[in-house]
Amino acid sequence: MDALIAKADAQGHRQKKRKIFHNATENSVKARTSVPKSLQDKGRDLNVPSHNHIANKKLRSELVRNATQTARAKALIDDAEMLLAEDAGLMQAEGELERTWRVSQPEILEEAGQDAARGRREWKLDGGTYRSRYTRNGRHLAIVGSMGHAATFDWLTGTLHAELQLQETCRDITFLHDHSHFAVAQKKYVFIYDRDGVELHCLKAHIEPTRLEFLPYHWLLASIGNAGYLKYQDTSTGQLLVEHRTKFGACSAMTQNLHNAVIHLGHQNGCITLWTPNLPHPAVQLLAHLGPVSSVSVDPSSGGRYMATAGKDSTVKVWDCRNWKGAVREWSARGGPAEVEWSQRGALAVASGGTVNVYTSPTIQQPMHGSTQPPLYLTHPIPHRPLTSVRFTPFQDVLTIGHAAGLSSILVPGVGEPNFDSSEADPFENRKARREKEVKALLDKIQPDMITLDPELIGSMASEQKLSVTTTFDGKPPRGAETPFARLPRIERLRVQGKADESEVVDPDDTAPDGRKLTKDEKEKKKMRGKNKSLKRYLRKHRKNVIDPATVAIRAKLEKQREERKARAKDQGGETRKPSALDRFA
Amino acid sequence: MRIRVLQHDPAVHLPQRPGDPTPTSRNLDPLMHPFARARERTRALNAAKMDRLFAKPFVASLEGHVDAVEVLAKQPGSLTTVASGSWDGGLIVHHLARRSQLLHAPQAHKGKVSGVCFSRAGRLFSCGVDRTIKLWSLEDEQTDNPEPLSIFNGKSPFNSIDHHYSDPQFATASNLVQVWDETKSLPISNLTFPTSTETITSVRFNLSETSVLASVGSDRTFTLYDIRTGKAERRVVMQMSSNALSWSPTFPTTVLLASEDHNLYTFDIRNFTNPTQIYKGHVAAVMSCDWAPTGLDFVSGGWDRTVRIWSEGRGHNPEVYHTKRMQRVSSALFTHDARFVLSGSDDGNVRIWKAKASERLGVVTSRERAAIEYRESLKDRWKHDAAVGRIVRNRHVPKPVHQAAKLKREMLDARRVKEERRRKHTRAGDSKPKADRKKLVVVEQT
Question: Which regions does the record annotate with the repeat WD (chain B) (predicted)?
């Protein structure tokens, strides 16, 4: 028996696990050697939170293990930045007198490589004003003219996929999950075509659409039209998911936030509204412009934190989506309403009048009083007014502008993300990879009701419930459900702060000259004229056993005014004579 | 003016020669992966659903017994050979892979075959309530109606038998524990606790310290013996009697008891005051238990017609197997490769189940293996999510089991409430709540 127990003791506790350290070299030699203590990696730079407050040992060790793993994974991601192969483009002034905005397209073309130079193009087309849209990998381009000319093509190789003459007004075009399908907002309905231009669906629920957006991770096609209905169509199942009545009338500015799939709409009355499928009203509504909103765009480089809007009042504004209290920056764009678009690396293109201006990232978001234009990065004149769309090509330094005479694409060094991820969007993917990605994306489709303003909500801990109406059996609120300070009534708050006056206030109006309290009827009788002046009523309302700083301040002010009035009356009362004409000679 | 325009080198991103794999590039910047968490949750949900979708644990049923199967035993060192004995005295040695019978003795014993075990040398011992132990050879040509090699006669009906790990000795359980030598016709020693008048229901040798022997008896005891000293070392009396026991194959002092009170208990024999873990799940008496050879899982069969697979240290939510035709499970067994589970039940069948319900049998490619492992870790990571956790946790059980579980829960709740009220109305500090694991052991005797 003792031998058995000795054996078990020698074996120790089974759950003891080999420690894995972040250092790969150490891991490789540890089995054979003993590393001196001074050289041991103690997970020091892994910022693992301690869980000492947790009493349960099993739970604590599991939490620590998870936290370590998370920290290690994060460290590995940081390390992986070294592996990024390609460098972003750039344009830098070297001399003091040089300015990047003075550089013209021919000069950039000279410096650009052969492949990059292919981004500079002019498409002369006569289908009205053009709008364009790229696929997520930036390889394919869809264009549509207002008079019904639609085409999709691989702009790198120059292969045309489909060209359609639709013979009616077309207002917008968008690719669906990849270049194999695209949707066109036509005169009356939205139509879906496949890559070869064969009409697949006519979405009759979307009436008179003006703008289209496709939410790739939710497989939702969102459209807004002249009737002001925002409609979501699930393109994987085909059902019309939801339609929201915006109550703002016709709308022609729409964009999506790539990071939380919220739809931003710009309306005729200058309002911007943010929509999710599961809310029948806008999640956020703000008055952004004095006239109609002409264009909206959300910054993808900062995780959707900044939004740019342009209005028909010729202003461009940049907003912080965390705090809607006023624009971060605003300036006026010359030449009427502008089109705005953010690039992947956070450059903002503003096309207004006959020019396209590009501003770069940190200066656009720096708050600035007044309407100063941020420093210009690049400008390019286009003589074909109006400029109706601007689109940056993903993973390229190219900006495509749609205008009345077709499209022109210009080179803007440093706006495109240089390193793509093949699992998300790969410009060089082949047919098999595209198919595989389509299936994977369908499997990973996120349910539409999970769209929220905060994309990190999913998988995070539910916050502690603050307010509760339920009570436990003894009539008290359950533990941890105390009413927060902010939700307390004012008197309670003052009491908590120690500012409440608990002594009973005796109103002089309520007491008779002999000291006894007046009844209600007597009080009514005593009521004088002027008792119900609004300020007095306000003061009376707030006379609630409380020393309220605001009320005290008003009382003091009133007192001061009364004093002044008295003093003035005294001054004038001393010499009551009327002013005479001879006073000037005194 | 420094100007550089981004351009991707096609030579890097396209395969060099036809047939080459397409190069992939990675950018782990979180901004490049929007909705990473939401997508991962969707994948976890799909993984949980797929796991349940492919949960088809039943593999085969081995027929041949006329009456209820009472006992199962696996041969050490063999993945396929399993012996089963039934209530009508039939003894069958099954070949699991071929699903054939290596030996079939319809009248091995008169009355029930109560114990079967293999020796290291590959010989089979069976004992019955007819007070005999029979030794069978598997090399025999005659597979139907074979003759035993030898017969040992005892004085009282036997309940259980187990063979020593290396020596040619075996132990039997009747009203006392007897140790026999294979070459001698009489027991070489009788082991019994001095004050015991019990019926021993099961006896097992320790797998590490091979001379140590443990037994459970009908007088609610668990007893430890050492065959070298030839006496009982320690005895523990519990609230309810145990039906079976099993020594952990990896941790020498851990023993698992299948109790009549619907629970299983693991004990560390160094400390008998309380079990290391209580395993609650069965809704009727647990009839048998067996460890997986890894020592991480074990299986139990119960009177409630279910087989449950537990992982060590997790006392709730076991995997549940049941079929319409499976009756009271009187014996359950893990195979030596830890991939299959056997159950012998009152309906006379021996059933083969997968140990992991949704595991795919057959060759699994490395990519598939990686996908399976990824899905496993996803499920583990998202198990606290309401939707994922519900799917992972939920098991459909037959209506009687469900009702019994409900009833049991109600009764336990009522008991607890009553206890709470009683405590509330007694003087403060007079009666303290007692943890379940402290209630189990009544007394420890040496």
Answer: 106-146, 279-311, 322-363
